[in-house]
Each structure stands twice: as structure tokens, then as C-alpha cells.
Amino acid sequence: MIRNENFVIRKIGTQYAIVAVGEATKRFNGMISVNKTGSFIWETLKNDLSLDALVAAMTEHYDIDAETAKKDAEMFVTALKGVGAIEGD
């Protein structure tokens, strides 16, 4: 899976938000607030990664077990796929 190039992340004060740009605004014209972990996942998905590779990156970056990382990653990825911000499997 990889992030859709028609979505970008912006820092607004101390918060982060993923917003649609270009053609993606026809389908989704809101924004998704994300925390630092969400921002890390978003940045990590600049490269095409499997869920397992994403989980490995999360467990390496954070003091978190693989089961928790996978659960969190799946929820986040599902939400972003729902608006078209992430493509692929």
C-alpha cells in the first residue's frame, strides 16, 4: 500500500491533518486529523509497503509490541483507504 499523491499532510499549530488536493477534492473535501503516530505512518507510506512492513517500522520506531502496532495500523489504514488517501494492499 502507498499513499495517494492527491493527499498531503499539513501541520496546523501542533496538530497534523491529511487533506485532499487536486482531483481528490472532488471525492473528499474534508480533512483527517492525525496524531504523531498517524503522521509517522503517513510519512512511512511514501514507499509502497505491506502491512507487515508497516508494523515492523512502527515496532522499530516506537516501544510497542507487534500485535498492538498491527491493530493500530489496520484501523488507520482502513480509515484512509475509505477516503482514497491510501491505495493498494
Biggest sheet strand order reads: 2-3-4
Q: Spell the H/E element sequence.
A: EEEEHHHE
Sketch the major β-sheet: 3 strands, antiparallel
Helix content: 40-55%
Q: Count every helix, treating DSSP H or I runs of 4 or more residues as helices.
A: 3
Q: Which whole number gives the mean pLDDT?
A: 94
What is the beta-strand fraction? 15-25%
Residue stretches low in confidence (pLDDT < 50, at least 5 long) are none
How would you describe the overall organization of this protein?
- The chain contains three helices and five strands, in the order ββββαααβ.
- The protein is an alpha+beta fold and 89 residues long.
- It has one domain.
- The strands form two sheets. A three-stranded antiparallel β-sheet has the order 2-3-4. A two-stranded antiparallel sheet has the order 1-5.
- A hairpin with a 2-residue loop joins strand 2 and strand 3.
- Helix 2 crosses helix 3.
- The chain starts with a strand and ends with a strand.
